[in-house]
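Z., the sequence and structure:
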Amino acid sequence: MLVKWSKDSLILNTYRIVDTLAEGGMAELYVAENVQPAHVSVADTLMLPQVMDNPHQIAPASLVVLKTIRSLFAFDQELIRMFQDEIALMKQIKHPHIVRWLDAGEHDGRSVLVLEYVQGYDLARCMESFRLEGRSLPLHWRIHIMRQILEALHFIHTMSQPGGQPLQLVHRDVSPPNILVGIHGRAKLADFGIAFHQMMSRESSGEDIRGKFSYVAPEMLAGRKVDQRADLFSWGCVLWELCANQRLFWGETPEEILKQVNDKEIPPVRTFDPDFPAALDDLLQCVLQREPEKRYTNAAQLHSALSQAYPMHSWRADAKELRNVLQGFSSLQLPAFFREVSPSPVSNATKATHE
């Protein structure tokens, strides 16, 4: 078994590990800084100006996220193939509301995916803080965040191969931990490992559901063929929870959660918030229909319905407002490493060859 990487380890001769970000499931995630001022990632040459947050974001000592297979599973050939497929997919995706691929390579016999670091919080952490403190973001921010994720879903649902043939890609894991809320006001969708694996296999078995149960569409639980409408159901679950400030499908065991996903009557958000717009409740009731045929057809149609249900023509996102609101939650704090990282001396190590 390979050992876990530790703080200050130099990965791909370019990225120095600052801290462990997360470990669970099949992957290890690390925060690292780029210590090679001269290093320009492959992604730099492919990034379109209109989708970049900042043309100078990839810079010396900038933070990135390193993703690799957990050392425990480092020799599992199926997981290795899945991860390599994920890397291949991420190289094709360039959208302002999807976490960007920056680089890739191999280190210590393990494939490494280098992703942008989003300064902010994952939505799961935000929602936990909201429930804990009994309040939430202003409704316009909640809708703004989920509108951006809907735009990301529309993008991946309509991706095509170089010859024009649709990829028919479905994310399959739209859930709060995979939605990142940047303090600058931009939300991003993350984690495409399941999406590419299922796209390649073209079959979805009820025994191979890797998404988070509380957000999985009923047809996926039943092992039926899924399409983009499964992602819309998951999106609806997240929006319902964000607006109601409580869990929708929950239980002590996976079996209890699955039963709720299939059978629970979904209460209107107005049950908990009498001032919640009726049009938004109607939208949620539609997107959370158990039968895919009764939901919105695609993300574009849902986006249009959302704009009609909650018009925001005169409102403009103010990143300072969002930062102030988020910082008002005592349980939400940016990681210390983000404030402490300083430029490192240039490494004399020979730069690795990257994909």
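Confidence is low (pLDDT under 50) at residues 40-61, 196-211, 339-355. The chain has two domains: 10-117, 120-327.

Let me know what you think.
H.
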